[in-house]
Write a structure and sequence with these properties.
CATH superfamily of the largest domain: Aldehyde Dehydrogenase, Chain A, domain 1
CATH topology of the largest domain: Aldehyde Dehydrogenase, Chain A, domain 1
Helix content: 25-40%
Strand order of the largest sheet: 15-16-17-14-13-19-20
Strand content: 15-25%
Bound molecules: nicotinamide-adenine-dinucleotide
Largest sheet: 7 strands, mixed
Number of domains: 2
Radius of gyration: 23 Å
CATH architecture of the largest domain: 3-Layer(aba) Sandwich
Number of strands: 23
Number of helices: 16
CATH class of the largest domain: Alpha Beta
Amino acid sequence: MAKRLKNYIGGEWVESSATTYTPVINPATCEVLGECPESTRADVDAAVKAAEEAFLEWRSTPILNRAQYMYRMKTILEERFEDLAEMVVKENGKTRDEARGEVRRGIESVDFAASVPVIMRNDGLEDIAAGIDETTLRQPVGVFAAITPFNFPAMVPLWFFPTAITCGNTFILKPSPQTPISMDLMFEILEDLDLPPGVVNLVHGGKDAAMAVMEHPGVKGVSFVGSSPVARIVYETCTRHGKRVQAQGGAKNYIAVLPDADMTASVKNIMGAAYGCAGQRCLAAAVVVGVGDAYDRLRDELVKQASNLRVGYGLSETSQMGTVVSAAAKERIERMINEGEQQGAKVVLDGRHSVVQGYEGGNFVGPTIVEGVEPENILAREEVFGPVLSMMKADDFDEAIEIINGSKYGNAASIFTNNGRFAREFKYRVNAGNIGVNIGVAAPSASFPFGGQKESFFGDLHGQGIDSINFYTERKIVIERWI
Ligand code: NAD
C-alpha cells in the first residue's frame, strides 16, 4: 500500500493536519509510491516553533561538535547510497547512474559543510587606534528554510541544510510534492545521527506550505530552487516579510560550437548535457548554436549520436535516458515542440509519442532535435525542461554571443572550441552565471557558489561555497579597548 508521508518535526514523525494528499507516482511504471500531505499553516507553525526552541542550545553547541555530525552524516549516507539513488529513480524517473551522480554530488555538499569551522573563521586587526582592537564575529541567524524542486530530490536539499545547521542555525525543509519520498528516506536515515530535536525539520506540501514558510515571522531566511516565475514570487514574498532570500530559478542554456572544435568529442559531451536526466536539469543544454561551417557537421553528428540513445526505465542498467517526471510534463514538452514547429522550426529527430515496451503507460519523451529555430521561436525563448535540443545558426562568433545574451535567462552557457582567444572572449562577454569551456554541464562543485544571472537568480548571495556561509551567518564587528 502507498505510504502516507508524515512530517518530521521536533525529532518526531507527526501526522500532518492536511485534508488533501497528492499521489506520488513512479513516472515509468505509474505505480503510486506514496501520498504527500498538503501541510497547513499549523504544521509549518509547529515546525518553526520546534526549530526556534532548538536554536539557542544548538548555536552554543561547539562548532567542532556541530561539524562532527557532518562526518557521521557522510558515513551514513555512504552506507545508504544505493537506497537513496534507487528512491530518486523511482519517484523522479531518471536513470540509476544519474541518480547515483546526484547522491554523490549531494554528499559533496556534506563534505563542504564539514569544513565550515575553517571557513567561518574571521578576521581582525590589533591597534586600529592606540590600544583598540577590532574583530569580526560570524554568528548564526536562527531558523532557515529551503523550498526545493522535483528534479534533484536528493541533491538540492543537501546544498542547503548541512551548511546552514553546521553554521549553527536550525532548519525547515519543504521538498517538492512531486518527489518528496527521497527526503522522507533521508530524514529516516538522519535519525541515526541523533541530532537534537528541532535542528532539522521536514514539512511536506506545495504552494500553501511554501507560502506559510515565507510568511512566518519566525523564519529568518529562505533558500529556494525552482522555476523562474516561482523564484520571483519567493524573492518578492520573502523580501516583503523582511527575510534573507536566495532564489535560484529556471534556465535556457546555450552552447556555442565553433568550427575548430573536435566535433565527435564535443557532441558526445553535448549529448550528456542535453539528454542527461531527460533534459530536466537547470544546467541542461537547451539550444546549440553552430557557428559558421560547424553547423552542418554538428547537426549530422548530433542526430547520429542522439538516435542511438537507449530510452527505458531508470532501474534497468541498460537505459541511457529515463522518463520525464509526470504525464503533465510529457504533455507540456510535446505541446512546446508542436508550437515550435508551428512557428517555423523543423523537427529532425522526433521524440514525441515515445513508447517503451513493458512500460507502455510511462512518461517517456525520446531525444528530440529541432532546427531552424529563430530567436523569437518558443523553443529559443522558453524553458522546455525536457529532452529537446534546439539548433540555431550563427555566421560568426559575435553573432553567437549576441544570440546567447539575448536570452532572458542566465544560468549557464558553454563554448566548444580549441581557440583560447574565443574561449576567453566567451567567459568575458557572456551574461550567464556558470560558464563551460569544452564542458556541456557547467555545474559548480560544492565549494564554489552556484552562479545564475538575470531571470535565473533572484537575490545576491548564491547557494553553495562562501556565499552560503555569508547567507547563513550574520557578521558582527567588535571594537575593544582594555587599557
Ligand atoms: P517549481 O517552481 O514548480 O517548484 C519548486 C518548489 O516551489 C516546490 O517545492 C513547489 O512546491 C514550490 N512552489 C510551486 N509553486 C509555488 C508557488 N506559487 N508559491 C510558492 N511555492 C511554490 O519547480 P519544479 O518544477 O519543481 O522544478 C523545476 C524548475 O526548477 C525548472 O525551472 C528548473 O530550471 C529549476 N531548477 C533550477 C535550479 C537552479 O539551480 N537554478 C536547479 C534545479 C532546478
